[in-house]
Design goal:
This protein is an alpha+beta fold and 305 residues long. 24% of the residues lie in helices and 30% in strands. α1 crosses α3. The longest helix is centred in the last third of the chain and has 20 residues.
């Protein structure tokens, strides 16, 4: 097949929206490229999001905040809409300290040089009077796609995991029209409309998606062997106690219910945290932890100190 020859033209390009026209393409390649780019743009472009928050004066997401007009659920929903760009590798902390009265915006977060907020005018909450305060500490992480809060259950009192939409791409649409080259009229014109959240330009997103596809297709043209995974690898072994549920420990019903509400489903979950953190779980304490330790020892496990 002859070397592909086509042009890519950018139309109405802004910081968050862009239209790209790719032509002329052999018949059928409009849908082939358009569908592949659309899928990769939605799923495989890295981004950043807030993954958990600590709000002063609250212990869980159904708490109320004195002096704040919105309830905590509404505040968290607003925080999930904060669009960030993050260049670091490890999770980063950003903080917000606001006094009333008036609205609290995303731009009031104090961030490091590696975190940028793309929608600083986003209103997070409204403070009712001069004595009202709102203190927030949020964790920012990098990632791909969508990650529900359930994937990051926390046993630390006051830490509220949030749903995280890492993808900087909000919407992708494509259309294929007929175009001509000289007298030949059976060529395709691919029109690609891309909208981002402002943390990444549409043209950079399209180039990144195309680069990802190139890497995968190159692996088909020049395949390489996947690295062998050792049978003794710790990641391939089940965690100790992974198959034993908390209910099988025959703990008092109150303790079992408290553990399950906090996200402890198996013995492996219990062994993953020290006793000091376990004691902070709601409705538990030092005496309950001793009962848990005794039940674990009967099964041959020792709780971390």
């Amino acid at each position: 097949m002859a070397e592909p020859q086509f042009t890519v033209t950018s139309e109405s390009l802004t910081g968050s929206q862009g239209r790209f026209v790719i032509e002329p393409l052999p018949q059928g390649f409009g849908d082939t490229l358009g569908n592949a780019l659309r899928r990769v743009l939605y799923t495989s472009i890295p981004g950043a999001a807030i993954t958990s928050v600590i709000i002063e004066g609250t212990r869980h997401q159904f708490s109320t905040i004195e002096g704040v007009q919105e309830d905590l659920v509404q505040v968290i929903l607003a925080i999930k809409q904060v669009h960030l760009a993050y260049t670091g590798g490890q999770p980063a902390k950003i903080t917000l300290s606001a006094k009333g009265p008036g609205p609290v915006t995303a731009g009031q977060f104090a961030t490091g040089s590696d975190v940028t907020i793309a929608n600083p005018d986003l209103i997070l909450a409204h403070l009712s009077d001069k004595s009202s305060r709102l203190e927030i500490e949020a964790t920012v992480e990098s990632g791909f796609g969508y990650s529900p809060a359930e994937d990051r259950k926390s046993t630390t009192v006051g830490v509220i995991p949030t749903d995280a939409d890492f993808s900087p791409v909000i919407r992708v649409n494509y259309a294929v029209e007929a175009t001509r080259v000289g007298r030949v009229t059976n060529f395709d014109k691919l029109i690609l409309d891309v909208r981002t959240n402002g943390t990444l330009s549409p043209d950079a997103a399209v180039k990144a998606a195309a680069g990802t596809l190139v890497n995968y297709f190159q692996g088909i043209v020049n395949p390489s062997s996947a690295p062998a995974v050792s049978d003794s690898s710790s990641s391939s072994r089940p965690s100790a106690g992974g198959s034993i549920s908390v209910e099988e420990l025959d703990l008092p019903t109150r303790i079992t219910n408290s553990l399950q509400r906090a996200g402890f489903a198996t013995v492996a979950d219990l062994l993953a945290v020290p006793a000091s953190e376990l004691a902070k779980v709601k409705n538990l304490g030092g005496k309950s932890v001793k009962i848990i330790e005794a039940a674990l020892k009967d099964r041959g496990f020792d709780l971390a100190q």
